[in-house]
User: Fold this.
Amino acid sequence: MCAFDKKEWSKEYYQKNQDHFKEYDKEYRQNNKDRIKEYSKEYQKKYHQKPEVKEHKKEYRLKNQDHFKEYDKEYRQNNKDRIKEYQKKYHQKPETKERQREYQQKNKEKKSEIEKRYWKNHKDKQRVKWQNYILKNKDKIKEREKEYRLKNQDKIKEREKEYRLKNQDKIKEYHKEYDQKYRKKHPEVYLKSNIKQLKKHSIPFKLPWKQYRFAVQSWSKTIKKNYPVCVICGSSHGLNSHHIFYKKLYPELSLNENNGITLCHIHHRELHSLN
Ligand SMILES: [Zn+2]
Ligand SMILES: [Zn+2]
Assistant:
């Protein structure tokens, strides 16, 4: 018997016993449901992994890009919950986590570079986003901060101490600026404290504060006459008279002509900021 005859014969045999075969097929399918499922799954997997199939799929997708995009969009919209659920499950898998960790370690530098670039390009957008978030969640943020502070009191104190030590000059500058602004805003407060000081310093001389102020002004003029330039840099611009023994500590020497030198504005400020 040659191959052709064999084929012909089996075809004939099948046609003759069609019903019987169909019945047998059905029975077999019913009894081996799981096996068939498993097998077809595997077959599909293998089929889709074939390079020619992959190539073909790629080409097909490229040809029908727009259609696919539309379809994708629709599918995503209709299956939001399902996709979320799937993503959750996928990210919880230990092998996924392991893979992510490996990938992150491998691409650490790349990642940081990409992140940097991203932040650079989205600076303004991100800032607006943050601002909006802060505005919307003020109470929440405050509550969280409170909690954090309560939990990490010692840590925060330590950190603040460190910061203060590191930024002494910066803080001093800041306080000075704040002081100046405050004085400009509230001249009456400054005047009040000024008068208080004058009253205090005038005690040894038994003078009313207004007269004492006049006396200090004339002392200042005398010092400037004695030293017509800054004793440090020799400048003759913006001169101040400076008490060698400070008024605050030795008010009784505040009108003594030997207790004064002339300093320019800059060196006067510098000298006082040293103390
Ligand atoms: Zn001074
Ligand atoms: Zn000077």
Q: What stands out?
A: The mean pLDDT is 89. The chain has 15 helices and two strands. Strands lie at 239-243, 260-264. The two ends are 119 Å apart (CA to CA).
